[in-house]
Amino acid sequence: MVLIRSIATISAFTMVSRILGFVRDVLVAAFLGAGLWADAWIVAFKLPNLFRRLFAEGAFNAAFVPLFAARLERDGAAAARAFSENALGVLLWCLLGVVTVVEIAMPIVIHGFAPGFAAVPGKHELAVLLTRITFPYLIFISLVSLMGGILNSLGRFAAAAAAPILLNLCLIGAVVGLAPFTETPAHALAWGVAGAGAIQFIWLLWRCDRAGVRLRLTVPQLSADVRKLLRRMLPLALGAGVYQINLLVDTLIASLLPSGSIAYLFFADRVTQLPLGVIGVAVGTALLPLLTRQLQAGESAAAADSQNRALEFGCLLTLPAAAALMVIPGPVIGVLFEHGEFTPDDTRATAGALAVYAAGIPAFVIVKVLAPGFFARQDTAAPVKVAVLAMAVNLVLNLALMGPFKHVGIAAATAISAWLNAGLLAVILKRRGHFVADSRLRGRIPRIAVATAAMTALLVAGERLLADALSADGLSEALSLAALVAGGLGAFTGLALLTGAANWAELRGLGRGR
C-alpha cells in the first residue's frame, strides 16, 4: 500500500532521529542531572519546541497541506507554488513580530510558563537567558514546516522526516564540543538549538529546489487562501496539538513541585516520544495528504479504507510498545539516563512518570489517525471543541492529583485527557458517517490485544529472571535490557503472526516497498 510505504519512510527517519535524541538526552542527563540547570534548560528548550510540534506536526501541516494539495490538484503546480510563496512571506513577517515581542517580554513569559522558578534564587534569570537564545529557532522551524508541507503534498516524505536528525546532531555536538567554551553545558545546548534551526531551514530549502519548487521571498499579500490559512492555524493548533498544550500545562504546574519534577516528566516524555514519533506522527503526516487527495477526487470508499488501515497499523505497533514501557520502565530509564549527575532516586521518580505516560500512548496515536479525518474535510470546529474539553479535564486532574501523587499525578492527568480526546473524536466521526471500522479492523484489533497481553506476561517473567543483571551497573545492565527488549519484540512478532494480528505477506511487501 502507498500509505503504509509512506508511513514506513517517515518512521525510518524518525527512528534514526529518536535514537539520536536518546543519545542527546543521555548526555544532557549526564551533564546537567535533574536539578536547577536541567529544569532551566528544559524550559528554554520546551518553549520554542512547543511551537515546533504545533507547527511542524500539527497546526501548520493540517492547515497548509489541504489548501496546497487542493490548489495543486485544481490549478496546477504554478498556482500552488505562488500560494506557498505568498504564505511564506506572510508567515515570515508574523514570526519576526512574535519573536521580537516575546524576546522583549521574556521575563514575564517565563514567569507565566514556570512560575515556581521565582522561588529559587537565580533559576528564573537563568531560564530567561537560555530561552532568549533558543527562541529564534521558532522562525526557522516554522518555515521548515511550510517547506515540509510542500514536499509531503508532493509525496516526498523523506526530507522533512530527516530534518529532526539535524537538530539532534547539533545538540549532541553542542554538549560535547561547545560546552567547554561556554559558562555551563546548558548555555551550549541553547546555542545548539539556535544553530540547528538555521541548518534545518537550509536543508529543506535545498530539497524543495531539488523537487522543482524554487521558493522566492515575495511581497506578502493577504490573498483568500492565505487568509483562510491564517484563520485555520490557531484552532488547528488547539485541535491537533492538545497533547503538546497539555505538556505545557504540566510544566507550569510541575514548576510548583519540588525541584527536579520538570526533569522527571521531561525524560519520561522523551522515552514516550519514540513510539509517538515513529508511529503517531508518521501515520498522521502520511495520512493527511492522502485523505485530502482522495476526498477531493470523490473517492470516499478509498478514504475510509486508508483511515482503517492507518488505525490498524498504528495499533499493531503502539499497543505492544505501550505495554512494554508500562511493565519495565525502571530498567529503561536506568540504562538510558542513570549516568553522571542522574541518580538512582532520579531513575525511580522518572520511571513512575514513564509507566503512567505509557498508558496514554495508544490514545495519542489514535488522535493522530482520527484528526486528519476532520482536517482533510477542512473542519476545524469539532477538533477544537474536543481539545478545549480535554485540556479543561487535564487542568482539573492536574490540580487534583499533584498533591497526593506529585509529578506522577501530572502524568496521569495527561494520559486520561488523551483518552478522552481520542474517544470523543471517534464518536463524532462515527456519528457523521466519516469513520466506520471495517471487518478487517474489527477482526484484527482483538488479535493485536491478545498478542500484546501474552508478550506482556513474558516481559514480566523475563524481568524477574534477569532481576540481578538489571540491577547491576554498566554493560551487564544494558545487555540484559537489550535481551529483554529483543525477546519481547520477537515474542510479539511471532504471536501477531500466529494469531493473525499481522500478515507476513504484507510485511514482506512493506519491506520491498521501502
Write the layout of secondary structure elements.
Blueprint: H1 2-32, H2 36-56, H3 59-75, H4 77-104, H5 106-113, H6 123-134, H7 137-153, H8 158-178, H9 185-210, H10 224-240, H11 242-254, H12 261-296, H13 300-327, H14 329-337, H15 344-359, H16 361-375, H17 381-432, H18 439-465, H19 467-470, H20 475-499, H21 504-513
Helix pairs in contact: 1-8, 1-12, 2-6, 2-7, 2-9, 2-11, 2-12, 3-4, 3-7, 3-10, 3-12, 4-7, 5-6, 6-9, 7-9, 8-9, 10-17, 11-17, 12-13, 12-15, 12-16, 12-17, 13-15, 13-16, 13-18, 14-15, 15-17, 16-17, 18-20
Please provide a written account of the structure:
- It is a single chain.
- With 514 residues, the chain is an all-alpha fold.
- The chain has two domains: 2-437, no CATH class; 438-514, no CATH class.
- The protein contains 21 helices and no strands.
- It has helices at residues 2-32, 36-56, 59-75, 77-104, 106-113, 123-134, 137-153, 158-178, 185-210, 224-240, 242-254, 261-296, 300-327, 329-337, 344-359, 361-375, 381-432, 439-465, 467-470, 475-499, 504-513.
- Helix 3 packs antiparallel against helix 4 (77-104), helix 6 packs parallel to helix 9 (185-210) and helix 13 (300-327) runs antiparallel to helix 16 (361-375).
- The longest helix is centred in the last third of the chain and has 52 residues, at 381-432.
- It is globular, with a radius of gyration of 22 Å.
- The termini are close together.
- The model is unreliable at 509-514 (pLDDT under 50).
